[in-house]
């Protein structure tokens, strides 16, 4: 049987436990982790947490597909419409390369510079703009038609969605 990469949506904070259970079955799994140093007044500590909350990537055959569903922490396979999402090997290799070679990775939920975005909350909630920068804090340009000028605003990524 040909093996393919699938995405599992896990229970809250169950990514690492499910990863261990899946790999104990001999199934290849990938859990992208972010490492960061937290500074307290008296010490520093390395914090390791999943980059994608509640997601685990597994490479399996259709026979193993149902075996994984029975494990504690498994909620469902991620799907788009009624089709279970299959992730190409090239995308997994890309993620591994990024995680292995870069620190402080931020996930932008599909947002890229130039995307049309909607502001969700605050005094500008509901307004439409264009994403002009997407590292950490986003810069959103809001165009005022009558003035023919744009306002460049710093926005948190969790306050905007792609249109």
Characterization of the model:
With 163 residues, the chain is an alpha+beta fold. The protein has 2 domains: 4-101, Alpha-Beta Plaits, CATH 3.30.70.940; 116-162, SH3 type barrels (Roll). It is built from 3 helices and 14 strands. It has helices at 15-24, 62-69, 89-101, and strands at 4-10, 28-30, 33-39, 44-50, 55-60, 74-77, 79-80, 83-84, 86-87, 116-119, 128-133, 137-144, 149-156, 160-162. The strands form 4 sheets. Strands 1, 2, 5, 6 and 9 form a 5-stranded antiparallel sheet that branches. A 5-stranded antiparallel sheet has the order 13-12-11-10-14, with no helix packed on it. A hairpin with a 4-residue loop joins β12 and β13 (149-156). The longest helix has 13 residues, at 89-101. The radius of gyration is 20 Å and the shape is globular. The mean pLDDT is 84. Keywords: Transcription, Transcription antitermination, Transcription regulation. This is UpxY family transcription antiterminator.
Supply database-style keywords.
163 residues, alpha+beta, Alpha-Beta Plaits, 2 domains, five-stranded antiparallel beta sheet, 3 helices, 14 strands, 19% helix, 42% strand, globular
Brief summary of the model shown:
The protein is an alpha+beta fold. Helix content is 19%, strand content 42%.
* Uncertain runs: none
Overall structural class, as computed from helix and strand content, comes to alpha+beta
CATH structural class of the largest domain:
Alpha Beta
Radius of gyration: 20 Å
Overall mean pLDDT score? Answer: 84
Tell me the major beta sheet.
5 strands, antiparallel
Q: Could you say how many structural domains there are in total? A: 2
Report the order of strands and helices: EHEEEEHEEEEHEEEEE
CATH topology descriptor of the largest domain: Alpha-Beta Plaits
- Give the total of beta strands: 14
Shape: globular
Q: What's the end-to-end separation, in Å?
A: 39 Å
- Residues in helices, as a percent range: 10-25%
Percent strand equals 35-45%
Task: Give the CATH H-level superfamily of the largest domain.
Answer: NusG, N-terminal domain
Q: Which architecture name of the largest domain does CATH use?
A: 2-Layer Sandwich
């Amino acid at each position: 049987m040909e093996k393919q990469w699938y995405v599992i949506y896990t229970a809250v904070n169950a990514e690492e436990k499910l990863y261990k259970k899946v790999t104990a079955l001999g199934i290849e799994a990938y859990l992208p982790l972010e490492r960061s140093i937290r500074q307290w007044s008296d010490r520093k500590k390395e914090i390791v947490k999943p980059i994608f909350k509640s997601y685990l990537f597994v490479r399996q055959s259709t026979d193993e597909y149902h075996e994984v569903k029975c494990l504690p922490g498994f909620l469902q396979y991620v799907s788009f419409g009624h089709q279970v999402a299959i992730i190409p090997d090239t995308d997994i290799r890309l993620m591994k390369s990024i995680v292995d070679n870069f620190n402080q990775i931020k996930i932008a939920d599909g947002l890229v510079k130039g995307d049309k975005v909607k502001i969700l909350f605050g005094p500008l909630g509901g307004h439409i703009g264009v994403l002009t920068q997407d590292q950490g804090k986003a810069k959103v340009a809001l165009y005022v038609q009558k003035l023919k000028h744009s306002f460049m605003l710093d926005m948190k990524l969790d306050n905007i969605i792609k249109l």
